[in-house]
Design a protein that fits this description.
This protein is mostly helical. The protein has a domain of about 60 residues. Helix content is about 45%, strand content about 0%. The chain contains six helices and no strands. The longest helix is centred in the middle third of the chain and has 13 residues. It is flat. The chain starts with a helix and ends in a 7-residue tail after the last helix.
Length: about 120
């Protein structure tokens, strides 16, 4: 391990979290999204005690017993996908490196000091 890397690992977490750099964050102007009305329907459905209730919030067909019903066209589409799949490669346990790199750059910006100094890791 290089001296520089060892020194960085010995720093406390709070040193990295101090608002000391002026690099604008991608997230600074983000506001929470409004609650999804579909989920409101689902919560109402779950709370309703009527045994004849019908869930209108999710695009899933149900049989007379309330169990999901899979359309034949969906089953055929799944078979088509499986037949065309030619490889079964798995990604690395910690994810695909190129995807992880792009995710860091999206979150912090390519020019952010933590990116340039290789001080962020993600999975």
């Amino acid at each position: 391990m290089t001296d520089d890397r060892l020194e960085r690992e010995q720093r406390t977490e709070t040193e990295y979290l101090q608002p000391h750099d002026p690099t604008p964050s991608f997230w600074v102007d983000m506001t929470p999204a409004e609650p999804d009305p579909v989920f409101g329907l689902i919560h109402g459905f779950l709370a309703d005690q009527n045994e004849k209730k019908v869930l209108l919030g999710v695009g899933a067909y149900r049989d007379d017993n309330g169990k999901p019903f899979l359309l034949e066209c969906v089953k055929q589409a799944e078979r088509n996908i499986i037949e065309k799949q030619v490889e079964k490669e798995y990604s690395f346990p910690d994810g695909i490196p190129s995807f992880r790199k792009k995710a860091r750059e999206l979150a912090f910006g390519k020019e952010h000091p933590t990116i340039k100094e290789d001080r962020i890791c993600n999975m």
